[in-house]
Amino acid sequence: MRRFALIFSLLLVALPVWGQGAKTSSVAEADIDKLKPGEFIWAPQLAPEGPTTVVVSLPAQRAYVYRNGVRIGASTISTGKKGHETPTGVFTILQKHEEHYSNRYNNAPMPYMQRLTWDGIALHAGKLPGYAASHGCVRLPLAFSKALFRETSLGMTVIVTDDRPSPQTILDPGLSAEPGSDQHLRLTASQEFRWNPERSPSGPVTILVSFADQRVLVLRNGKIIGRARVEIPPGLFNGTEALQMEGRDTAGNPKWLYIGIPGHEASHGKPLDRSMIEQVRVPPEFLANVRAILTPGVTMMVTDDSFRSSNEGKPAKVLVTS
To answer: Phi, psi (5° rounding) for residue 231?
Structure first.
C-alpha cells in the first residue's frame, strides 16, 4: 500500500510570567530553579484559552504547565518517597474532586485532587518539604493546586518523567493493560490501521509514537481510538521527546513544535525538522482521520522505547490501555 509522510510535531515557548514571590519577566529554567519549597509561578493570562498539558519532573521536583504551546506556570512539588515512588508515564486526568480524602491513608485530606490512576496516584495540594515525601501522589502548593484545578479538564495530558538530562521511558500504570499484554498493539496481518473514534467521541487528544514497535497510538480522553503500523528509519530519534500542536499553516497543514521537557530544554519551541517528518510513513487514510481531529494544543510523545513486553516477560516501557 502506498503511504504518505506522517506529519506530527508540536510547540512550546518560554513566556513572561508572574506568581507567588516571582518578579521575573519570563518562565526561564533559571527562574524556576530559584523557587523555594511552596513557591510557584502562575500567569494564565499569557494563553487564556486552549488545551493544557502538565509536565512533572521527578529529579527537579518541579511541575510545568503549558497551554496552547505557552508555558503559563511552574511550581515546586513533592512526589513519592522511596518505596512509594511516583510512577512515570503519560497519564490523563481521570477524575477531579475539589474536596477529597484518601481512602488509603487515614482519610488524609487531598484538596483539589486530580486523579491520574485508579490505584491512588493524583495531583493535589499538600505539604512541600523540598524533597520527595509523598506516598506516590504529586503534591502542589495549595494556591497553585487551586488555580490549576480551575484550568484543567478531564482527559487532559499529564507527563511524568524521571530522567534528566535524557528522558528514556514512559510507564503508564494508570492507563495500562496488564503487564505482558500487547492487546493494544494487535492488528491482523492484513490491517494497516484501526480507527474507532466512537470509543471516545470527544475530549483531549494525545498521540504516542514508538519507533521500537513501529506503531502509532491515538488516545482521546484517555482511550485509544486509533492505531496504525508506521515505518520509521532506525536512529531517527533517540530517547523520548514531547511535542504540541501550535496551529495550521496557510495550506492547512498542522504546525508542531517541541515542548522543552526536562532534559530537552534546548529544543523548546523549535519546529520538527521537515526532513525527519518525510522519512516517517503512515497509511494515508489513517493520517487523514488523525488530521481531522487535530486542534492546537494536542500533545504527542515520541519514544524509541517499546509499547510491548519483552520476550523475557518484562513489562513494557510504554503501557497504555487497549
So the answer is: -115, 115
Backbone angles phi, psi at 42, to 5 degrees: -145, 120
Identify the sign of the CA torsion 164, 131, 25, 48: positive
Check residue 273 and report its DSSP letter: P
Range with the poorest average pLDDT among 9-13, 166-170, 281-285: 9-13
Over residues 120-140, the mean pLDDT reads 94
The confidence score (pLDDT) of residue 107 equals: 66
Q: Which of 283, 172, 304 is nearest to 226 (CA)?
A: 283
Q: Which three cell numbers stand for residue 39?
A: 513557591
- Structure confidence at residue 91 as a pLDDT band (50, 70, 90): confident
DSSP conformation class of 104: T
Output the CA–CA distances (angstroms, integers) from residue 231 to 226, 243, 281, 290, in the order listed.
16, 20, 5, 17
**21 in a structural domain:** no
| Average pLDDT of every residue of the chain | 76
The CATH number covering residue 236 comes to 2.40.440
- Same-domain check for residues 39 and 156: yes
Q: Tell me the pTM.
A: 0.68
The kind and range of the H/E element at 62 are strand 62-67
For residues 167-202, b (16+ Cβ closer than 10 Å) or e, as one string?
A: bbbbbbbbbbbeeebeebbeeeeeebbebeeeebee
Question: What mean pLDDT is predicted for residues 13-41?
Answer: 60
What's the structural domain count of the chain?
2
If one counts every other C-beta atom within 10 angstroms of the C-beta of residue 164, the result is 15
Same domain, 200 and 181: yes
The side-by-side arrangement of strands in the sheet containing 254-259 is 193-195, 223-229, 215-220, 205-210, 299-303, 240-248, 254-259
Host domain of residue 237: 4-10+168-303
Q: What gap in Å lies between CA 317 and CA 142, rounded to an integer? A: 33
Strand pairing partners for 41?
Answer: 74
Residue 130 lies in a domain: yes
